[in-house]
């Protein structure tokens, strides 16, 4: 519900310079002690760590998991990029070209970036310890809690990409800046469980000492730390710790479902948002609309959307009927979405996906052959078509009120943690305990809110496998485009089953002389997707192995 306004990051991005509150003289040089002179200076120092979370979100430069801004849903059955060349086509190349993902071309290298963050965080912690006497115990613990939240997040990202259960290889655990000197560069990778222990311990401290949202002033708060604990411990398979973190959030009674799914993503000031970022038009922005809006979305300045990617037909097929029953793909009348049929499906479909004829900024989308929004078909006809190859566009996360995103940038917020994700984590924890009734009930409550009906159909759950089927399907729909699908399939051991040897489709609409349309199912792949077993553990950088003889590479790389 509370948020961190990224406007306060501007000064931190350039150190402490330019902040009147700390009375800096630009003609002087300042040593580290100035950063810990008072609470205001420390908060500015801490501000410099906040971009890490944004950068690894789906609006950021590390959206794929490493230093790549492609959305990770583009690796899955959810989203299809139109390009077949490096850059905007990276997701397609990774999943279809043997050897594209390698040690030397590691799209999932969180290691390099995150150890840079860990170094800076450990420097901060060292300085905080040195100047601890400048602060009250409450201030010291709060500052340390913020820093440890960020360190836990960085180690989580490293483990998400690089942990190898097969080899029992986790992270190199640096908890002190003294460990990160050239003289100490030879360090073993800790085991996987020991590495998750480090994440757990950092988060527990953060959750203990970070303030309640009402006194956090938009900074990290206790329940943001609980949300991070729930997410990370789910990945660690420590369901008891994930469950207790969600229960702490529920006990606060601060967070609840809201009536309109689309409204969640337009503001951080709603009861579904546990923590997120605000941006500001013209001063601090991102590029999401410029990249993913349609080419027919012409700005006041004359520029237009990049049309990088569109939802697949398989993803559209995953949306249930309006009463909750699973959709039947043989139902050709309702399969290819139109204004006449969209109301027959899960309401989240209309809130998440744009289709031929959908209204957007006062115009009807032309997602048909030769239309303004779909000039090139089929997939592979041109290297970078600049429009959908599936017949669909994303609606969720785009800003319909932004009429010139090229000049003004995009400024809708990024929601990092939200209530629905926590409840789906809770359902998975209950299922793991064998409480299948409770797991189904938790998912059913979410569906009642999203479908707007108490009698919505939710499948029965009688086993761990059937529970996971339900939960992963609901996570795919509820959390689409938020960067969860690929990692969900990978952490649950289902990536190969769902992704390997698969091809995906779209719809090509043909406009008839009388103005009506006929639909054709078309492939949006030139070859099958591949998920080799070694994708369960992406390699660490070769530079680490070369410079640190104790650092073992993951097997099969």
List the helices and strands and how they pair.
Blueprint: E1 3-5, H1 9-13, H2 32-35, H3 39-47, H4 51-55, E2 79-81, H5 90-96, H6 110-130, H7 137-162, H8 192-209, H9 213-216, H10 222-236, H11 239-252, E3 273-278, H12 288-292, E4 309-311, H13 313-317, H14 332-335, H15 347-352, E5 353-354, E6 359-360, E7 363-364, E8 393-394, H16 405-408, E9 414-418, H17 419-432, H18 436-451, H19 464-478, H20 485-491, H21 495-499, E10 505-511, E11 517-523, H22 542-547
Parallel strand pairs: 1-3
Antiparallel strand pairs: 2-4, 3-9, 5-8, 6-7, 10-11
Write up this protein.
- With 557 residues, the chain is mainly alpha-helical.
- It is 39% helix and 8% strand.
- The protein has 22 helices and eleven strands.
- The chain has helices spanning 9-13, 32-35, 39-47, 51-55, 90-96, 110-130, 137-162, 192-209, 213-216, 222-236, 239-252, 288-292, 313-317, 332-335, 347-352, 405-408, 419-432, 436-451, 464-478, 485-491, 495-499, 542-547, and strands spanning 3-5, 79-81, 273-278, 309-311, 353-354, 359-360, 363-364, 393-394, 414-418, 505-511, 517-523.
- The strands form five sheets. A three-stranded mixed β-sheet has the order 1-3-9.
- Helix 6 (110-130) packs antiparallel against helix 7 (137-162) and helix 7 (137-162) runs parallel beside helix 10 (222-236).
- The two termini are 43 Å apart.
């Amino acid at each position: 519900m509370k948020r961190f306004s990224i406007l306060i990051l501007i000064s931190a991005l350039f150190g402490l310079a330019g902040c009147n509150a700390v009375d800096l003289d630009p003609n002087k040089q300042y040593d580290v002690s100035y950063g810990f002179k008072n609470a205001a200076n420390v908060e500015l120092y801490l501000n410099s760590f906040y971009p890490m979370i944004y950068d690894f979100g789906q609006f950021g430069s590390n959206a794929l998991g490493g230093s790549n801004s492609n959305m990770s849903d583009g690796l899955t059955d959810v989203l299809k990029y139109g390009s077949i060349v490096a850059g905007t086509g990276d997701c397609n190349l990774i999943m279809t070209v043997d050897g594209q993902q390698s040690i030397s071309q590691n799209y999932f290298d969180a290691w390099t970036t995150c150890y840079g963050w860990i170094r800076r965080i450990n420097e901060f912690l060292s300085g905080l310890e040195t100047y601890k006497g400048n602060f009250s115990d409450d201030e010291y613990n709060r500052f340390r809690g913020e820093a440890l939240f960020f360190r836990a997040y960085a180690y989580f990202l490293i483990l998400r990409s690089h942990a190898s259960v097969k080899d029992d290889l986790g992270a190199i655990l640096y908890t002190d800046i003294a460990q990160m000197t050239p003289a100490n560069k030879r360090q073993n990778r800790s085991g996987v469980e020991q590495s998750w222990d480090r994440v757990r311990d950092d988060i527990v401290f953060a959750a203990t000492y970070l303030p309640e949202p009402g006194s956090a002033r938009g900074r990290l708060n206790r329940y943001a730390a609980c949300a991070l604990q729930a997410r990370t411990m789910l990945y660690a398979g420590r369901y008891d710790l994930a469950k207790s973190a969600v229960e702490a959030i529920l006990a606060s009674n601060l967070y609840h479902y809201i009536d309109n799914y689309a409204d969640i993503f337009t503001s951080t000031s709603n009861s579904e948002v546990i923590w997120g970022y605000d941006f500001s038009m013209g001063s601090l922005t991102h590029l999401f609309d410029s990249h993913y809006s349609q080419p027919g979305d012409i700005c006041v300045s004359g520029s237009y959307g990049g049309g990088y990617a569109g939802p697949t037909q398989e993803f559209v097929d995953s949306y249930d009927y309006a009463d909750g029953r699973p959709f039947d793909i043989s139902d050709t009348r309702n399969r290819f979405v139109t204004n006449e049929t969209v109301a027959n499906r899960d309401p989240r479909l209309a809130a998440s996906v744009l289709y031929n004829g959908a209204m957007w900024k006062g115009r009807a989308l032309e997602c048909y052959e030769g239309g303004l929004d779909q000039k090139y078909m089929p997939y592979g006809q041109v290297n970078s078509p600049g429009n959908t190859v599936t017949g669909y566009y994303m609606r969720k996360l785009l800003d319909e009120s932004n009429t010139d995103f090229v000049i003004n940038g995009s400024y809708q917020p990024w929601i990092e943690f939200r209530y629905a994700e926590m409840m789906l984590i809770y359902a998975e924890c209950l299922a793991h305990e064998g409480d299948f009734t409770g797991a189904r009930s938790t998912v059913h409550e979410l569906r009642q809110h999203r479908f707007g009906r108490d009698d919505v159909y939710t499948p029965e759950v009688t086993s761990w496998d059937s529970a996971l089927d339900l939960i992963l399907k609901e996570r795919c729909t509820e959390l689409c485009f938020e960067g969860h699908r690929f990692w969900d399939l990978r952490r649950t051991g289902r990536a190969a089953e769902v992704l390997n040897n698969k091809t995906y489709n779209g719809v090509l609409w043909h406009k008839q002389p009388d103005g009506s349309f006929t639909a054709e199912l078309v492939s949006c792949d030139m070859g099958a997707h591949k998920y080799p077993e070694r994708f369960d553990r992406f390699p660490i950088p070769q530079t680490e192995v070369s410079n640190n003889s104790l650092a073992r590479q993951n097997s099969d790389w």
